[in-house]
Amino acid sequence: MTTFAIRIKPSVQREIAAADAAQARGHFSTSFEHLERAHVLGQAATAEHVRVHWHMLRFALRNSLHGEAFGQLWRLVAASIFTAPGLVPEGNTGGADVSGFRRMPIAQDLQQALNAARAPHTPAPKKIMLRMLTAAAALAALATLMTGCVTQPKDLDLSLEKNSVSNVYRVALVPPAQAPAINQMHSWKVKLAAPDGTPVHGAKFAVDGGMPQHGHGLPTQPRVTREVENGTYALDGMKFSMTGWWEVKLAIQGPQGADQVTFNWVVNNPAVQTVSLQ
Questions:
Q1: Residues 69-124: pLDDT tens digits?
Q2: Fold classification of 161-267 (topology level)
Q3: C-beta pairs of 17-25 under 8 Å, 24+ apart in sequence
Q4: Cα(202)–Cα(189) distance, rounded to whole angstroms?
Q5: pTM of the entire structure?
Q6: Taking the alpha carbons of 95, 98, 100, 106 in that order, is the dihedral positive or negative?
Q7: What three-state secondary structure class fits 163?
């Protein structure tokens, strides 16, 4: 274990403990923010980097964040391979909602902890050469890892109206009449009914999703903002950042109880894709 790893471990542990305490109080957003801070601190030490992603994976599984969980699986593997040669983007918060290759600004208190943990040293020429060789091997491993991403199922269910998982509701996801351009903000509609077709009024929704093939979440944080008519709700803040297979997940809390549903949506060429709005 390196001097840096020994010195930074207590700071990482404090953030993990704070995350556990916040989650126990039901403060889930705050809990994950502490895990992100732990990631910024520990990502330069292999054991700490892997440990933080393990806690992020557990958080995602406990809270049924399937896109986040998938993103953490490949990040666990990447952390074990790319940390030692230094192939980690400084300041990256580690969640599936950001690219695993993106450098990000570091909060001042975290930067101070990092500076204190880093022992000054000058790598010898042989160590520099070893790092270069290790980095080349790591990049080759990354190429192999990326080719093993989840492929789109041949029998992918693209229906936009279906029963929720426990058959509590009948849910329809209604896209805009004209498919938006890539990276264009837009709105959808959600139609919620009881199994007999009766519209459901006064429901609340939580929105999640992402790209299973790439392991990242939605590029925005869409929300169901209002009920436009009985049983029909506005889903605002939608955006797709690239073509391919996307999942849109709705957690529903309504008069009949809680349930959830997942829709699949394939973004093709937006210039020619048109969807009829019913």
A1: 999 999 999 999 999 988 899 999 999 988 888 899 999 999 999 999 987 754 55
A2: Immunoglobulin-like (2.60.40)
A3: 19/55, 19/59, 23/59, 23/62
A4: 15
A5: 0.48
A6: negative
A7: strand
